[in-house]
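Hi V.,

You were right to ask for the full record rather than a summary. Here it is.
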Amino acid sequence: MPIIRLELVPGRTPEQKSNFAREVTRVAVETLNCKPESLDVVITEVPKTNWAKGGKLL
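Predicted structure:
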């Protein structure tokens, strides 16, 4: 059972997240030769206050 995890800061619409899940599933099914129902996509939104880049909080 493949699991694909995406972490990002909040701000994407439900439609954008849905489109991402659909497309990444399509590519994973083709690439990994697995069934769509065996694949999980987990999207985690991390507030900027909990995300640092280059040693500085976003």
